[in-house]
Amino acid sequence: MLLVNAIRDNFETVLQGLHKRNFAKAETILLQVLEIDKNRKETQAQRDNLQAESNTISRQIGALMKEGEKEEAEKIKFRTSEIKEQIKTLESSYTNYEEELKQLLFTIPNVPHVSVPKGKSAEDNEVVFEHGKIPSLPENKLPHWELIKKYDIIDFDLGVKIAGAGFPVYKGKGARLQRALINFFLDEALKAGYIEVQPPILVNEDSGYGTGQLPDKEGQMYEATVDKLFLIPTAEVPITNMYRDVILDEKDLPIKNVGYTPCFRREAGSWGAHVRGLNRLHQFDKVEIVHISHPDQSYDTLEEMSKYVQNLLQKLELPYRVLKLCGGDMGFTSALTYDIEVFSAAQERWLEVSSVSNFETYQANRLKLRFRGEDKKTQLAHTLNGSALALPRIVASILENNQTEVGIKMPEVLVSYLGFDQI
After folding, report:
1. Which one, of 268, 329, 265, lies nearest residue 116 by Cα?
2. What is the pLDDT of residue 269?
3. Each residue's pLDDT tens digit, 147-200
């Protein structure tokens, strides 16, 4: 969440940034934040003044008792009791202001980076790079949902029987392709200096608040209601929360973690060509990269992460493009996001396979994730993450783009993982 000091000291900059996001209530809410913070500080000052008065009176009572002036001491004891009641009332008010302020800050999205383009939807995103040649397929080309039936490698009907729509069953070479991609992505990350972690796929409420899924995105997550736990929408949540309430040493930055997990999202659609087959699922596999960065270096890190993901796609021989998301299409917590899309030749459309984002201090403020510099002072770190990569649309594109009259050719880089070169 945003820092109150940043809102107060840079009010117009924050306001204009939120306007870029088309956040309609920006000015009203920002003014409310400042008013509540003012009341909170005034209450704190009153409490501190009363506490100081109480301490002074206590010393006076002690001195009077030593001097044998018991009667005089008893007279001013009454004021001490009065002050205690006033402090109690003020502490209650202070707590209420703190909670009200926190809940209000939770409703404000992150301020976009100055380079984020204006816009209201995906139509306004800016294409910043394209790579690769769109494959030319035969006229009888098939979309991946037909190919998986033809070669019997993924079974959606069986998934419906077991769990419901959006939970596919991978079989035979389809399952081996999943495993090959996961291992390939993890191995590439290790070569690039990432430390692998295998986090839980259930998280508590504190973790959801820490990375910004809560308080307003409960409907997008599957919930284990008895234990108040949530199935993760992405490995970003548990991996980033490893550093909640942690003070790092500046010399340890940057921290680079990678993790494979299944991911779960309730909001996956159920109709239309754009959600057919593997295009949008309730459960899918993904390898996630997470960086904890020094604020001075986080945008260099963002570019590094984008190039890393692009390198994976080049090795998989998939044509792709990089988009800088406009203010109206960005995620709630992001300051700048690159979406990376591959071209699906049978569907003849671009499919998002990765989002790489810099959250600056937005998540770190919620997480209380700080680092201590050489001057021994602490400050908030910057957090970043990216999909490297999400599997469903990668699989869809591999199947569609590499189909031939006699089978589906596998990318050369995967053959040693798969043990076969064609489906």
Report:
1. 329
2. 52
3. 999 999 999 999 999 999 999 999 999 999 999 999 999 999 999 999 999 999
Whose structure tokens read 């200096």?
193
Task: Quickly list DSSP for 72-139.
Answer: HHHHHHHHHHHHHHHHHHHHHHHHHHHHHHHHHHHTSPPPPPTTPPP-SSGGG-EEEEEES------T
Q: What tokens does 247 get?
A: 């003070």
Cα 183 from Cα 198, distance rounded (Å): 13
The mean pLDDT value of the chain amounts to 94
State CA 215 to chain mean position distance.
14
Asked if 205 and 239 touch (Cβ cutoff 8 Å), the reply is no
What was the pLDDT predicted at 218? 82
Q: Order of strands, edge to edge, in the sheet holding 370-372?
A: 247-249, 370-372, 378-380
With a CB cutoff of 8 Å and minimum separation 6, the contacts of 189 are 196, 258, 287, 289, 388
Q: For the ranges 64-68, 96-100, 119-123, 260-264, which has the lowest average pLDDT?
A: 64-68
pLDDT at 379 over 60: yes
Does the reported pTM lie above 0.90? yes
